[in-house]
Backbone:
């Protein structure tokens, strides 16, 4: 009787997957606690487990019930996205900008040689992301700072197989920056799957905005459960497909950012 030697072979996963619940993330607050934050990626003193993912330098999820203000403060070099999950935020900066952006809209600052800005939450309840991307800073410092804003209607939306994909950065999205990055706001119907083909050396950073589901490594049929406010980091060791499936009990909404795991320029060490 011959033994099938392939039965002893272990299938190596194409991905390294790590899930960080809210208690493994950083925290912060502004305006006497009127604005609170959890930070999937933050500064070391704020307590996050993850320092950065490639050129994705910082990611905060801010919440406020009512008015709150983040006072005028400076930035230099980094490319900063504020994306409104719910409610409305106001913005003012030293370029002379005064603006408001509502649910589904975004503000983008390429801070270049330097700019200061302030933000405020407006209305009864507001939630928004502030995300910093890191270009080659020595080149970015030479550029003139810019500000752009986009309403929800400016972003392309694709519907396929029970999934709604809103493109925020890259591909067909109106936002393009120097950093190599794409970003999507993805909503998956109960029980349905959304698949992403990830090239070797690329990484996904995923925040679960609402719902429950699982990340499925199709090379090993291995599941990693996720829920609201979990932060997942996925590194591709070789090109393969990863699936994201919503639980049958309800929809799943995620913010998905793809970046290279490594870049060909030095990154800032926070």
Residues:
């Amino acid at each position: 009787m011959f033994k099938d030697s392939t039965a002893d072979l272990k299938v190596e996963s194409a991905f390294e997957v790590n899930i960080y619940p809210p208690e493994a993330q950083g925290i912060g607050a502004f305006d006497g606690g009127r604005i609170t934050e959890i930070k999937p990626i933050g500064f070391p003193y704020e307590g996050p487990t993850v320092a950065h993912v490639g050129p994705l330098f910082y990611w905060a999820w801010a919440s406020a019930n009512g008015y709150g203000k983040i006072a005028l403060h400076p930035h230099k070099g980094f490319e900063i996205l504020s994306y409104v999950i719910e409610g409305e935020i106001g913005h003012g900066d030293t370029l002379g900008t005064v603006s408001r952006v509502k649910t589904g809209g975004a503000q983008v600052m390429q801070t270049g040689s330097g700019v200061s800005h302030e933000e405020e939450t407006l209305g009864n309840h507001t939630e928004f992301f502030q995300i910093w991307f890191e270009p080659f800073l020595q080149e970015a410092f030479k550029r003139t700072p810019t500000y752009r804003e986009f309403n929800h209607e400016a972003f392309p939306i694709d519907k396929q197989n029970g999934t709604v994909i809103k493109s925020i950065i890259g591909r067909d999205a109106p936002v393009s920056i120097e950093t190599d990055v794409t970003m999507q706001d993805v909503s998956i119907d109960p029980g349905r799957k959304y698949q992403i083909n990830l090239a070797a050396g690329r990484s996904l950073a995923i925040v679960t905005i609402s719902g429950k589901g699982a990340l499925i490594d199709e090379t090993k049929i291995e599941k990693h459960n996720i829920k609201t406010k979990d932060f997942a980091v996925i590194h591709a060791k070789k090109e393969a497909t990863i699936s994201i499936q919503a639980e049958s009990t309800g929809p799943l909404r995620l913010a998905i950012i793809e970046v290279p795991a490594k870049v060909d320029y030095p990154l800032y060490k926070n």
Remarks:
- Confidence is low (pLDDT under 50) at residues 1-9.
- Helices lie at 137-140.
